[in-house]
Amino acid sequence: MKTSLKTLVICLGLGTLGLSACNNDNNQTSAKPSHITLSGTAATGAALNNASVTASCQGGSGFNQPVSTDRNGKWSGQVLANSLPCALQAKTANATLHSYATTSGNVNITPLTDLAIALASRKHPAEWFKSNQAITDSSINAAINELNQQLTGKNYSLPANFHLFNTVFNVGDAFDQLLDVFQASLTASSASIKDYNALLELFATSGNAALLPVAAPVLPPNVQTCASKNLPTATLSAIHDYAGDYQDKSTPSTGATIFSLNTQTGSLTANGINATIRQVCGPNVQNNGTNHVLLTDKGNITLFKTTAGKYSAESADFSGFYAEKTLAITGCESNGADDKLGFKDAPQDFCSFSKASSVAIKSPDIYTFFNADKTQNVKVTVENNTVKSIQLEDNNYAWACGIGTLATCNGVNVDQRNANFIQFPFNATVLSPVNGTQQPLTIKNGLLIHIASQ
Which among 88, 121, 403, 439 could bridge 329 via Cys, Cβ 3.0 to 4.6 Å? Predict the structure, then answer.
């Protein structure tokens, strides 16, 4: 397309005004739409774990990718920058909550945001979400103010600088405790208000926040002691070897550090919740190990150490978890021989490997060597007469090379004398940690032999 001088002058004039009404058909571009982030916490007091979070925004858009909560109720997603406001819904099999985002940043999804929406929209939040009804700023602000007045007037303890939609909170803090008190108060008022859904209906139909139940008295907790659990009392120094970080081993497992114990300060963190140890109970000696119970200001945790030296921690409190400790390496060293591997930088309880038996399979060629009780094994995979991978493990540890993204195997050769005899001499073969430790292990020297008639 040709542009006349007259047209060019007009377009240049519009350009000085910040307008772009003139385009050359041969040079059209379109800006990529920008997104903003919405994030927050979904909780009833207890976190909504693995809840699906849906956004219904202006123009019919929503999150650009599926969004769900983690075990602490945390979620985050992106919407088009020009699509606000957005109605939000967090849903599990047992609970559905709603919220409203008018700007980017933190947006909570709780029973209190549900109630505010019911007041402002005069609809049950589930129906409001389906209808895609916008709420005016004045309506939502009036609902927030009314709820704050009722919460304060009915003896709820509000956190400092409290905003029920936007204040960032975590499971176990003052905001979360407010939600716990609300749930307890709703249960205590069941004679007049059947359940939470009934309260939402009342708020929607009447627009009367005074129907909020009075805060139930916070009763002193049933404080447990070592004596009440029929366990002896121990000191923090008695569990000093339990100190450190523990990785998630629940089903399914994230592998992340979810429990950390500091025996010097008497503090711990479990699932993101900080707690102080009130008492250490134990030891309780069992056939397969020893446990201690930690009584804290936030809940109880059981520590266990097997007879093989494996540490674990678990609790039904702190949103529930099971974790195992990454074991420390103490630098044990040994020498190998025929059918024995010597290690360097190894743990004291796995300082060498002695072969007692072996098996082999073909296509792929895999040779597996076992110790006497088969609690330890070395697996060697051969491809094109070269060692492709090595796996070394026992009940507590595992190392490998040549698997996935791990480093290739070096320092080991294939020596096949005949169809029935093959041996693998090792010399400074470095294996990467896979389980139970974060430190590599070196097979210092030694020789593994497989004879087909075995």
Answer: 439
Supply 392's token pair.
Answer: 């070394």
Q: Can you tell me the mean pLDDT for 64-77?
A: 93
- Is residue 295 classed as helix, strand or coil in its secondary structure? strand
Mean pLDDT (whole number) for 344-352: 88
For the beta sheet containing 74-80, the strands, ordered from the edge strand earlier in sequence to the opposite edge, are 74-80, 35-41, 105-106
Pairwise CA distance, residues 445 & 417, whole Å: 20
- Residue 358 has a pLDDT of 96
Under DSSP, is residue 126 helix (H, G, I), strand (E, B) or coil? helix
Tokens (6 digits) for 244: 């450190």
Contact predicate 433/406, CB 8 Å: no
Q: For 43-88, give the secondary structure using H, E and C.
A: ECCCECCCCEEEEEEHHHCCCCCCEECCCCCEEEEEEECCCCCEEE
CB contact at 8 A, 447 and 337: yes
List the one residue out of 260, 281, 255 whose CA is nearest residue 270: 260
Distance of alpha carbon 181 from alpha carbon 236, whole angstroms: 33
162 HSE (CA, 13 A, CB side): 22
From the candidate CATH numbers 3.30.310.70, 3.10.290.30, 2.60.40.1120, 1.20.1440.230, the one assigned to the domain spanning 35-211: 2.60.40.1120
Instruction: List, for residues 408-423, the tens digit of each pLDDT value.
Output: 999 999 999 898 999 9
The alpha helices in 357-433, defined as continuous H runs, are none
Domain assignments of the chain as residue spans, ordered by start: 35-211, 233-325, 340-451
The mean predicted confidence, pLDDT, of the chain is 87
User: What's CA 239's distance to the chain center, in Å?
Assistant: 26
Q: How far apart are CA 297 and CA 274, in angstroms?
A: 9
Nearest-angstrom CA–CA distance, 443 and 59? 63
**pLDDT at site 15:** 41
Q: How far apart are CA 78 and CA 289, in angstroms?
A: 48
Model confidence pLDDT, tens digit, residues 295-347: 998 889 999 998 877 899 999 888 788 999 876 556 789 999 999 999 998 88
Contacts of 150 (CB under 8 A, 6+ apart): 209, 210, 212
Cα gap 285→166, rounded to integer Å? 49
CA dihedral for 186, 190, 193, 197, sign (positive or negative): positive
